[in-house]
Design brief:
Mean pLDDT: 86
CATH architecture of one domain: 3-Layer(aba) Sandwich
Helix content: 25-40%
Order of helices and strands: EHEHEEHEEHEEHHEEH
CATH superfamily of one domain: P-loop containing nucleotide triphosphate hydrolases
Number of helices: 7
CATH class of one domain: Alpha Beta
CATH topology of one domain: Rossmann fold
Oligomer: single chain
Length: 240
């Protein structure tokens, strides 16, 4: 994901204007030729009740919808957002909701001043409001400013909490990035020195311990093949 995908979450309580603002930001990015992916967290079931797909989901089937203009996939089980990112072919990820996320910076949409304190977990880049509140956070009142902020400071950590960076999880690493005391390279899981795994062009975040395990297993098998010599090895696997 490093260098390919930048992300940010829009957090706020119900009817704070998240959907409207995200729609405006999407339009601005699209005018700049950027591909945007959107993820929405919801406490309610998505409305598929009166569709054929809804019937399949009731039977606990993974369902794929296809037509000439769009396609989608729905799992009848919980999936975690980092696991779905390799499916994206986007430059930008905008997340609606996700107050619990500890690996993604956020913009707060407060309805009152106390919302800022309740929704700030140390990963807030700014807050969006028509009027400023008494807060040390950066105040933004125009969608255009959000686009610039995402381009300059948006990031996505893997959410592995592997502590390979020497910090106590992705939240602590994210806080340093937001504060300008570190950059995305602080994460050791995003880019390994010796082994890189990509899915549909997106680097797959790998726990350094798991990465070493994969590396040693591959080397043990490859060393038994005729013609194998030390150097750069390239493997390509297509899953259909």
């Amino acid at each position: 994901m490093e260098g390919n995908l930048k992300g940010i979450a829009f957090v706020g309580y119900k009817k704070s204007g998240k959907t409207t603002l995200i729609s405006q930001v999407i339009e601005l990015f699209q005018k700049k030729g950027k591909k945007v992916g959107v993820a929405k967290f919801s406490h309610h079931t998505f409305n598929l009740a009166n569709t054929d797909t809804g019937k399949f989901l009731k039977q606990k089937c993974i369902s794929i919808g296809l037509n000439e203009k769009e396609s989608f996939i729905s799992w009848p089980e919980k999936k975690y957002l980092p696991d779905l990112l390799p499916l994206l072919s986007s430059h930008i990820l905008l997340v609606e909701g996700g107050k619990h996320l500890t690996w993604l910076p956020r913009i707060i949409l407060p309805q009152k001043e106390e919302d800022l304190q309740k929704l700030d977990n140390g990963l807030s880049l700014a807050y969006y409001s028509p009027k400023p509140f008494n807060s040390p956070l950066k105040h933004i009142a125009k969608p255009e400013e959000i686009v610039t902020l995402i381009e300059e400071k948006g990031f996505i950590l893997p959410g592995l909490d592997c502590e390979a960076c020497g910090l106590k999880g992705c939240l602590e690493a994210g806080k340093l990035i937001v504060q300008g005391k570190a950059n995305i390279s602080v994460c050791k899981a995003l880019k390994q020195d010796r082994l890189e795994i990509k899915v549909n062009g997106h680097p797959l975040s790998t726990n350094p311990f798991v990465c070493k395990l994969i590396e040693k297993t591959l080397l043990a098998m490859l060393s038994e093949l005729k013609g194998f010599v030390p150097g750069e090895v390239s493997l390509k696997l297509k899953i259909k």
